[in-house]
Amino acid sequence: MFVLLAGAVAAQEGNDALYQAAVAEARRIAEGQDLSGYVEMIGQNSGVEGQTLEQVYAAFEEGTGVEIRYTGTPDQTAIVQSRLQAGNPPDVADLQLGMAQDFAERGLLADLSSAFGDELAANFSEMLLSTATHDGKVFGVYQGLNPFMLWYNPQAYAGPRPPQDWQAIVEWTESEAEAGRTAWCAAQGAGASSGFSGAQMIENIFLKKYGPDLYRQWGAGELPWTSAEVRDAFEEFGRVIAADGHLQGGAIGAISTSIATGYNPLTADPPGCSLVLWGAWVPGLIGESARPGETIDFFRVPASDPAYDSYELFQSALAVGFNDRPETKAFLRFMASTPAQTYLASLNRWPVANRNVPVDTYPSPLLREIATEFLGPDGVEFAAGPNLMASAATSTAFYRGVVSYMQDPSSLDRILETIEATTE
């Protein structure tokens, strides 16, 4: 008991030191500026994930005296659009990259270039910098950087570890169904964004079968949503993950189950499923019952075509500013800083984007493994598609299309035509 208690105390002291380093960074950023008032931010993380971000933002408040009024909601896209139309956008918002790029092209976002100097190039990879830049101007910063993987429960999953290819997962899923066991959890409920987890599953299937070039073309609107390749990815999702007997709660149950709690059955006692294809945030969503190596572990999503095994997609919202207030720019600069992201990493929710954060900052061995395997110098090759590049209208139609497809697979032609219409 003493050893565990001492370890907990040491961890808390370490967190306190990292928090104070983040406070010091906020003071450094604020030096010479007359900052006051508050910054309003609308983010995509609510619940315990939102509280994690608020812990980090508290360091900025302490270091600068500027209050951060954070609202986390899965409906942030609709809220930000509504606020923009009303002429009252928040100071800062988390946006999907496609929407952020659209806003940048329309001149709606603050140019952050002068606020950062050379810091961004030192802290972030060239890929991340290029996706957050328009006409040579930086318009946003990344906090988290979540790759996707297959999460499994070692106590329930008896399939190949790791599978050699996607077909091995297909065969294992079918054998589980024949034995009367439910293989997958794939909750979809997220308010106006319901279906986005399924969209990311479909994109993983597509990338691993058709490769990064077609995946980029799909995201850029050059490969039609009505193409045979996109249709095949939808159908593979329906056959393997969302089919009756394969999915915990069935398709209708998955649609109505919140993503905030819908993956808990993976680590329940007894488990309600044994496999999840989703992002690095899954253990953080599940919470205490996700015990690394005991009830949860991961392997990379296997490819249908071995030529594409090294490619992965990632999920990350981009924090952008809607005005040039010094408080707004200072807050975004703080969010991107190494001390702030090191403290965020220590809170054990998800991998961070800043490449200067030491891997051993993460308390979880799972997050340390993810950061090493996916984000280290010898990591994977990331690819961009609809997950990052699609417009807000197309993304919304995609998410709704996933839900409609799960409800009625026979309507796929109409669904894909509806999504394609948003790109015209």
Characterization of this structure:
The structure is a single chain. The protein has helices spanning 2-30, 47-64, 76-85, 97-105, 113-116, 119-123, 126-131, 166-178, 196-219, 228-240, 250-256, 282-286, 326-336, 338-346, 365-375, 386-389, 392-407, 412-421; strands at 38-43, 67-72, 92-95, 133-134, 137-138, 141-142, 146-152, 275-279, 297-299, 311-315, 318-321, 381-383. By secondary structure, it is an alpha/beta fold. The chain contains 18 helices and twelve strands.
SSE topology sketch:
Blueprint lengths: L1 H29 L7 E6 L3 H18 L2 E6 L3 H10 L6 E4 L1 H9 L7 H4 L2 H5 L2 H6 L1 E2 L2 E2 L2 E2 L3 E7 L13 H13 L17 H24 L8 H13 L9 H7 L18 E5 L2 H5 L10 E3 L11 E5 L2 E4 L4 H11 L1 H9 L18 H11 L5 E3 L2 H4 L2 H16 L4 H10 L3
Parallel strand pairs: 1-2, 1-3, 10-12
Antiparallel strand pairs: 3-11, 4-5, 6-11, 7-8, 7-9, 7-10
Helix pairs in contact: 1-2, 1-13, 1-14, 2-14, 9-10, 9-17, 17-18
Notable traits:
424 residues, 12% strand
Radius of gyration: 21 Å
Order of helices and strands: HEHEHEHHHHEEEEHHHHEHEEEHHHEHHH
Query: What is the global morphology?
Result: globular
Mean pLDDT, nearest integer?
92
Could you give a short description of this structure?
By secondary structure, the chain is an alpha/beta fold. The protein has helices spanning about 1-30, 45-65, 75-85, 95-105, 115, 120-125, 125-130, 165-180, 195-220, 230-240, 250-255, 280-285, 325-335, 340-345, 365-375, 385-390, 390-405, 410-420, and strands at about 40-45, 65-70, 90-95, 135, 135-140, 140, 145-150, 275-280, 295-300, 310-315, 320, 380-385. Strands 2-1-3-11-6 form a 5-stranded mixed β-sheet. Strands 7, 8, 9, 10 and 12 form a 5-stranded mixed β-sheet that branches.
